[in-house]
Protein 1
Amino acid sequence: MSEKRTEIGEIGEFGLIDRLNEKIKVRHEDTLKGIGDDAAVLDAGDKVKVVTTDLLLEGVHFDLSYAPLHHLGFKAVAVNISDIAAMNAIPKQITVSIAISNRFAVEAVEALYAGINAAAEHYNIDVIGGDTTSSRSGLVISITAIGEVEKGKEVYRSGAKENDIVCVTGDLGGALMGLQVLEREKEVFMANPNMQPQLDQYTLVTGRQLKPDARMDIIHELRELGVVPTSMLDVSDGLASELFHICKQSKVGVTIYEDKLPIDKQTYDTAVEFNMDPITCVLNGGEDYELVFTIDQKDFGKLEKHPDIHFIGHVTKEESGKFMVTKSETAVELKAQGWVHFPGDSK
Amino acid sequence: MSEKRTEIGEIGEFGLIDRLNEKIKVRHEDTLKGIGDDAAVLDAGDKVKVVTTDLLLEGVHFDLSYAPLHHLGFKAVAVNISDIAAMNAIPKQITVSIAISNRFAVEAVEALYAGINAAAEHYNIDVIGGDTTSSRSGLVISITAIGEVEKGKEVYRSGAKENDIVCVTGDLGGALMGLQVLEREKEVFMANPNMQPQLDQYTLVTGRQLKPDARMDIIHELRELGVVPTSMLDVSDGLASELFHICKQSKVGVTIYEDKLPIDKQTYDTAVEFNMDPITCVLNGGEDYELVFTIDQKDFGKLEKHPDIHFIGHVTKEESGKFMVTKSETAVELKAQGWVHFPGDSK
């Protein structure tokens, strides 16, 4: 065959996505935002609807040898709600499609759905449709979430301005360390099935990995305080990667401070135990589903005393670049790592 | 283990879906319709948004040994647009998620997307988001489509009334016969890879299988003629199955006439060649993506001369049951077969 064949690994997942997105056109005026943010934005009268979707595959995004089905169902919803939160919107509806193989019992599918329904209750959303089908291989879960916000109050990645303050919620790196612990215990178990997993001292980090919670609480609080962030994302790929998105789309630079980065003691201790640099875990660990956002300085007073919002730096001119000031007061350039889902991916 | 284990095959795909749906609650007033129709219906000011989703897996819903990727991309969009059409709505946006294994070249993914983009152009819709990830096994495509219609003009399965006329568009059974031909040629090819497939005389039926077209033309024409059907579905599982949905949700019966059922000559001839009953193919063949709908008798005059709408029967009282009057003027009870996606499924 003389046809050109380019391996996906040669251009990487992001390269592939860029190449596919280049050819996509927007035809309708009521598509206010298509591809390129945490969710798409559609006109709906005096409101906008925001729409996001995620596709999760067994063996790629989750491992049923340690992810309980109830938790998995909850997480599959939460990761989509997190994208709705990142638009400053309130989630309203989800569709849920699953593909399951015959090796699943009805009771197992019900456990998965019990987790989905628990998340629907927790986030006050309706399951409005979906598709249930068989799979010849692993479990597949595809969820689309729809949210709503008053027109003009939706928050994009592109609105950060020089001197805005960079905020993050909660703490970071926990989900990555949880994954490390679970993978290690799995290996131990595979080598000797009679060994009981040693997880008691890691419940915080394994919980962050197995059952993350989207920060809708923060979105409701920002509303009550009258604060609309200038830009926002959820931390799914890692803090550094998300800051790169804000900088690229807002055409700004950023400076953050190592000593301001929030890390839980258990995350820190686990990183040390695994011979990993805790700050690298904070910067590049994915799946924490916290929010990173920028606010105008005038709003700082309203959030200053919030126990779960951390002020980690400020927005600079684009030409100033992207830096972290270390504890030893050295400015090091930030690198976006993000998650790589294609084995052999070069980017 | 003492836990109860029920095999999916014991209760069937529909039994499983019923069991899962029982536990789903609707919490929001603006969810006008959740599960139970071709699409969900959401309030959006003076309009409603309709939302539908489909999950397609290699080896279950398509076979890459004969489905060209370009056609597959087009079809994946068309089957969702068909659900939007079945609500009497105009499609506006889709999200597209795909999972691909490394055995795909970038060019193959681009061919799939070229089909998706061709469908987006054909149906005048925007691709507003999605997810691209890797798969350890086959190709997975998940599409969610969003459409819009003036509030009150959306059409449910539940609005058919006694004496309404039952209409179907186009012709039926072709996609099923196309599948039979493609499967036979695949077997021949597997047995002897030097054999060229003999497909020339089957282009209509294979085309119906590989690249179906959603009947948006009919939706636009009904609008121009001022006709709002009283109930509507698209023929994805087979005519009999779709009529059962209308009867169940509208609490009516139906009588259709064998001699009115539309079948193309090539579909008929192919069925005979395969020793299949052509009328069974029309009644139970899935994936034709034609529309079946009911209209009030007062609207009959407006559609009477339409070359592609066929009047196949009428709606009766629920207690009258569901019957087909054969060419020999015998009334036989209709049976819903539908598609079965779970191997070993008993329903």
Note: The radius of gyration of chain A is 21 Å.
Protein 2
Amino acid sequence: MQKELILEKINQAAKILNEKNIDMWMTYVRETGNMRDPMLDMIVGANATWQSAFIITKNGDTHAIIGSLELENMKSVGTYKNIHPYLKTIKEKFPDVIESIKPNKIALNYSVNSSLADGLTHGLYLDLLEQFKETDYPKKFVSSEDIVAALRGRKSPSEIKLIKEAIAETLKIFDEVTKFLKPGITEKQVAAFVQNLVKERGFELAWDGEYCPSVFTGPDTAGAHSGPTDRAIEPGHIINMDFGIKINGYCSDLQRTWYVLKPGEDNPPEEVTRGFNVIVESITKAARELKPGKEGWEIDQIARNYIQINGYDEFPHGLGHQVGRAVHDGGALLGPKWERYGNLPTLKIEAGNVFTIEPRLTVDKYGIATVEEMVLVNSDGCEFLSERQKELLIIKS
Amino acid sequence: MQKELILEKINQAAKILNEKNIDMWMTYVRETGNMRDPMLDMIVGANATWQSAFIITKNGDTHAIIGSLELENMKSVGTYKNIHPYLKTIKEKFPDVIESIKPNKIALNYSVNSSLADGLTHGLYLDLLEQFKETDYPKKFVSSEDIVAALRGRKSPSEIKLIKEAIAETLKIFDEVTKFLKPGITEKQVAAFVQNLVKERGFELAWDGEYCPSVFTGPDTAGAHSGPTDRAIEPGHIINMDFGIKINGYCSDLQRTWYVLKPGEDNPPEEVTRGFNVIVESITKAARELKPGKEGWEIDQIARNYIQINGYDEFPHGLGHQVGRAVHDGGALLGPKWERYGNLPTLKIEAGNVFTIEPRLTVDKYGIATVEEMVLVNSDGCEFLSERQKELLIIKS
């Protein structure tokens, strides 16, 4: 199935090259066991030890220039039509292959804005300059960031199916967590419980196991992107968890929020419910405006403003990111125009994009309210891929 | 233990910076979940989502400039003394931190020659040029390849201990394979047996599971760097397997060779034994000359010539590579001066380097004879870390 997925994306890439009027796109790598260009899984499906070039052209041709020891493996992977093995140096094959394409533009994976389009190392870039110093190819080098944003962003039906499967399995695990939570259990114990389920079911974690899941209980927790601690759940805590899995190469990324009733409480305190409801409503408002042609900062601003108008601090991150093979995927980002996000918040949203929507706010003395849903942008709006959390999950003491 | 290992290597890095007269070394990364600079595990031990700079100075100071959401995590990792969190852009902190160091040279992870010193992407390099365009820092950028080669190559006593442990566990698994092999079993079944043992024992594979282990039985097999196939073991086959594991972050990489007796045979045919013995002797001869100050191509040539003098084709790869956190580690390589190896075959071998020695030859009509051992370079020679295979392992039909 991975081979079919890759061929589907290569086919899509050729169409995008036509749309962007770029003749060839080259992913140039080596020692992918040490560091992998993030595009490799999507458009190649093989590893490389020695310098290797994977070329897709506007007319749909594919060329793999690889070390000769990897010829049999590349054949069995079966994703590239023309395979050019070399023994001592890639220069044995490189000039002829490129000459046969006669490109006017050569897209390479470098980008200031997008890490997913930035798999070319600076050393390999210098190597290309040196190899082609007596040609005019270096003048034709352009960034592949538009290609990568389109290709990763516009999910094919098979990709959406895989993402939905990852979401469904993730929500099942959240349900089991709801049964597991009780006072006295630590953040670390919750994380271990979740990771054990993931392992038992043969899934992978969507991100680093140090903070997948992230679990936060009560006030003054460590904050997003921190690992779980020995802090124990207590009555009166808001608990939230950020968690995702990867199945067949595709990710989920979701968050849910619980409240632990104190003895004598039948319902959460009014300020907890209010904070939670502001989060839910901010998601509704943002999703309502999410459609092709919008820019991500516009959607981010809707949720951010709504939360601030309601008297809470703005969240210290973007409202949402794309999800796919990578948990932070695609180009366009639902984020504020902060410099650390580069140009991603001003890229146009496209049909087929899968985004998280994940606002956050702090309820003083109780904890952090967050909900993270996943949505698919369609031709004139968006649909929720995850069944929404619209009410606080309640844990009895 | 990982924290102590990292602090040990940071300390060693500061000494190497003094030796190379470089004031500061900066590992500049982002979205390490998508692509990880290969130095990150050794000298940082944390992930980064937003642009992050990890700086080690000649006087042993360490600075981490990171997104504010990752502050708590970085504190709990505990490997960097000075942590500078930023909210909207790394420029909030970058200039002041570098100004406080006033470096004359700034080593960055880019290298044409070494993938392990080439973790800086071209996009992030362009980002640094832009950020520092009004300063003279860009003129001070130098490649970190000498630092990386020294730091990864000169193993500390704790690193050697971990590598020895990985080797010992690998050899135990080879012993079980010897008991498992028999005619009718396929290469894929052998690989599945091995991967199952690795999983049961809680180890990781040292490289991609598609060809870890690589298993080859009989003549005309797919060749190195190919995955196992449905080809079945038959009497009269030479079988060989290339396999390594990772324990606590450190790798092994070993190969062993078996011969399957035909009905009526008490011993392997003379040409099989002869080919195997040429491999063993080529390892002995190469190891005898392996010592600090030599260059890798000299050692490669000893084994390569010996095999050719004995009437076999030369092997289509280097004689050996360094091993450590990465299965292809360090700088200096025991390889021929082929262009695809860059300058690595001419780097000086140093005490503390751990190398594989892995010659290969084809015995016509029987299969491939390979043995891969691991050695540690000491002050005036080298010692074998793996118990050597000096005789063919025999499988009865």
Note: Chain A has two domains: 2-152, 154-395.
Protein 3
Amino acid sequence: MTHKIAILGASGYTGAELVRLIASHPNMEIKALTASRKAGQSMAQVFPFLRHLDLPELVTIEEVDFSEIDLCFCALPHATSQAVIRELPKDLKIVDLSADFRLRDPAEYTKWYGGVHDALELQAEAVYGLTEFYRDDIRGARLVAGTGCNAATGQYALRPLIADRVIALDDIIINLITGVSGAGRSLKENLLHAELSEGAHGYAVGGTHRHLGEFDQEFSAIAGEPVRVQFTPHLIPANRGILGTVYVKGSPEAVYKSLAQAYENEPFMIMLPFGETPSTRHVRGSNFCHVGVTGDRIEGRAIVMVALDNLTKGSSGQALQNANLMLGEDETAGLMMAPVFP
Amino acid sequence: MTHKIAILGASGYTGAELVRLIASHPNMEIKALTASRKAGQSMAQVFPFLRHLDLPELVTIEEVDFSEIDLCFCALPHATSQAVIRELPKDLKIVDLSADFRLRDPAEYTKWYGGVHDALELQAEAVYGLTEFYRDDIRGARLVAGTGCNAATGQYALRPLIADRVIALDDIIINLITGVSGAGRSLKENLLHAELSEGAHGYAVGGTHRHLGEFDQEFSAIAGEPVRVQFTPHLIPANRGILGTVYVKGSPEAVYKSLAQAYENEPFMIMLPFGETPSTRHVRGSNFCHVGVTGDRIEGRAIVMVALDNLTKGSSGQALQNANLMLGEDETAGLMMAPVFP
Amino acid sequence: MTHKIAILGASGYTGAELVRLIASHPNMEIKALTASRKAGQSMAQVFPFLRHLDLPELVTIEEVDFSEIDLCFCALPHATSQAVIRELPKDLKIVDLSADFRLRDPAEYTKWYGGVHDALELQAEAVYGLTEFYRDDIRGARLVAGTGCNAATGQYALRPLIADRVIALDDIIINLITGVSGAGRSLKENLLHAELSEGAHGYAVGGTHRHLGEFDQEFSAIAGEPVRVQFTPHLIPANRGILGTVYVKGSPEAVYKSLAQAYENEPFMIMLPFGETPSTRHVRGSNFCHVGVTGDRIEGRAIVMVALDNLTKGSSGQALQNANLMLGEDETAGLMMAPVFP
Amino acid sequence: MTHKIAILGASGYTGAELVRLIASHPNMEIKALTASRKAGQSMAQVFPFLRHLDLPELVTIEEVDFSEIDLCFCALPHATSQAVIRELPKDLKIVDLSADFRLRDPAEYTKWYGGVHDALELQAEAVYGLTEFYRDDIRGARLVAGTGCNAATGQYALRPLIADRVIALDDIIINLITGVSGAGRSLKENLLHAELSEGAHGYAVGGTHRHLGEFDQEFSAIAGEPVRVQFTPHLIPANRGILGTVYVKGSPEAVYKSLAQAYENEPFMIMLPFGETPSTRHVRGSNFCHVGVTGDRIEGRAIVMVALDNLTKGSSGQALQNANLMLGEDETAGLMMAPVFP
């Protein structure tokens, strides 16, 4: 059976990545693609790399006949997303890639994203989309909230460790290096090739990055007490990829064991041998996530490193993984392609 | 039916690219991987991006039991390749990615590659592997000689034009920009990131690049008279991709028509609308080839631009396309993945 | 004696490059910096790499007291530039970096840039700023029109050859590879790091690039007859650098001799030994220009390759070289810094 | 007065960077350049970006007449350096860029670099070359040991904080992102453009990087008690630049004040306003070092970020700064060039 798919916000990178992935999916067909400002254009115009595909033209959301859609991906900006989803049919399966339904507490939403959440009834229904940890809920969900790409990276390093109580909870640092596609197709000076290439800088330093809302929510829920981590992202000249370097206090062996057990049967989570560390280049374009653990020369300290592709495992691949579950497909359908190297 | 595959020379980029592609092939199984200096290592050690796959360990060629192999890819250096293939079973299907069996005239081989060709009986048997133009021969071949990646690019621009006599034969310039993976995994100062990034240079300027041997052979055969082109490759900081900018004298409309007809039913050859030009970024990691034609302000001159991924359409993807034909598989099996962008 | 300098349009790359160069000039002092939208900001805010310098705040052009300025660099967009310069004091020395005063024929200006030229009396006065060929005129000029960066590159390859009549005039191809800073600080999708990195594409293919106006004017004037060249620029992931690969018909030895003679005593023009070719990486950040000549395997054809830094020798360095002449300074003052490699 | 300079090991990046800098120095002249394997070649062959300079040919160390040299830079590998320097005239001023004379305790040298130190009498004489903190000693020194580039970065962030006791000493994390030129011109697969570009990875994770020896020595000396930090370097696709992100426990305001006071009168140390963070792109090719401090949302924690160019401020620029002091020149001579951006 072929599932009919709509992608709202197909002119951005996560929308295009969804098209790329679904094009190789055995049981999905793209029936509608929307883009507000680029409606009327073909995907070949907006993304010439998809030129070989036979795709529907970009239309406005209003033009979509949702009665023929089985599942809808929303790759819209936050705030826009909730306004759009509120108007969609109430029985339509939806995977949202925005931040709008990630935070269960409306006050937290306002704190990190500004504005008042306007679709609280949907929020109540939404399941947090970190597949490996919410798999059963996602299977039965109608609305799944894709996680932030940085938020996913940090959680892959830390959730099992907090759950297993093998690290101190008051002294966790998530240092992160990210490629530029996570910033989207937005036109900003510091995203120009001339300004981004050949260097590195930190941003949202000092506990101000929005994905901290997800860390706070999830880690506190696991711990059963408030957990606050430090989080510093850095931007480098790479299109795809996030490398999380997470500093924790605990026995490196216990840390390794906790993660290895958690990911033992996960199709996309790859534990490296103890002492080896990952590279974003080795997961590029794929849905795989590499996890490495090393000890430090200072006893009782460990470093967990996680590498994933922010557009795939960090957002659109994760979204498809969730959609597979929601539609009763094999979770890995369309997602087993190897990384592209070099 | 699952075909059993061996890859000789699996520690180089074209070998690894073959593994990447075959991993998604519905009817192929990798039974043997060889690497002389790295024998005994796992592919995960040599190419950690393949870590998620269950692959045979790297062995020496001598250790391979070829009786259980249906088809063998040779991704070895030229000269080595002929020496190895000469010793392989005479009924084994082989796709060679080296230069050893591309040139039908042994004198030409010596001219461009030095040394004497030592397997002339195999040369007589070999079919030139530019799939779109040798498809029928490849289907029945035992030994197929993969083309040079630059040679493929230039031929996609020019073969139909020469065959259709729509351009002057004595004034053809193939200007080419190539990414660095075409140089292989060789350790040279000018391939270091610090020396290659942030700039461009020409190499083998002035009619000295070895792929000229293929241009001479093929273009002259099509024309029925000696054809000599100018060819200048340039190296830029990109891992994958070749952009050919080919200057010809002829009617731009006739040039466009000739190419459009030639590629009308080709699954991987994509003609852009007249006046549009391709980008290597739009074919990265895929087996697609984009072809564009523009006229010049000077009447009677046209510019043909061709973009392909040197590791995929330019070598390993082409090799798999040919292997599909040789094994009676669908020509596109395992090769329809979309490019990776951004 | 210290010359007092104003830079109009200091928030763009050529403006910032002027500041970088003048900061090391022994006899220049920056008295005024303007930027329309960013007036009121400090240069440290707009270009943090200049943070160590003690610079005047950005102001509007109206706020500048030109009576205290000895020489003014205009790094404004074309059309804006002529409107601004028309209002400046008539005895103020000006080096304009825009396209507004490069083309002597107003019809040509309209053809390539659109709109009507509105300052024809200034055009009549302006000297074309390719220093090596207009040195004497520049020395006495009040208004110098900086050349296009691509136009400079092509002319360095071809002017002596046309003057010396060593090449055919009806069959010249300027193939050019350029870094991205030439496109300026403009916010366009295709200049984003995610879209520009890792690939190459041609643009303004087919004789439509504006710098052709300069080629037509200059080459025809030298030849004493209309000369029309082919010109195809390509954009690659590098911040700085232009590599011109120029295909000509003529004796390679005569071509080499003509260029070697022309540049024999030029402080910034470096001839490579015959048969060697340049790299943009070897002139990065400097005012030097490397020129190489090779023959082709086809007799009577030569390839001239020219590498320069578009922001330095191609615009702001050239501008300073001209300003030095206009102010009676040593032509090389502030410009002898070595390239930055790697 | 012009000082006569020799550079031993001129075929590596730090050697070439010394030549670049000295070429603009008002009072230095390069009299000898050595390179063991490349002796007999010209610098133009080894580093074509220096082609415009009139430089002595590369020779072996044995061929140098040290009697005519005022100061010698040693840019040789560690272990080689001590063997060479031992044989040089005992009154020759030397700035060593290797690791050989950085560690005062021979046991520490053996621990981090292996092998036994063979020139302990020279070690006793050597002054540690972090100019801002050893200025007076350097002025009178005969042998100065240039610091590690990572070691310099971490110390710029931490020395004043440890001296002023404004941070906890047992919980310091130096997270570092570095460009690739720090690895030198060595031929390794992971330094190839194809393997390094488009991603990030950590290396020497877990307290195994050799520059920890310098951190241990210097921080413990300042504190008067053993201090052990965590240090994780990451490699990214940039040629130049180190970005240190240093996590400390202490009042952010006190941290800022301590650093601002320490660097108040330093010509190359630039404090950013509180809350702003630096980028390596803004110091590229220069001797400047940008320092930023932010608080975290968790009280009592601060993040210090330091950006410098590893080849300039991190090694060859530092070396020249020290040489200036040793020769009685202005400390900033030849070093005030602005960074190159973009």
Note: Chain B has a mean pLDDT of 97.
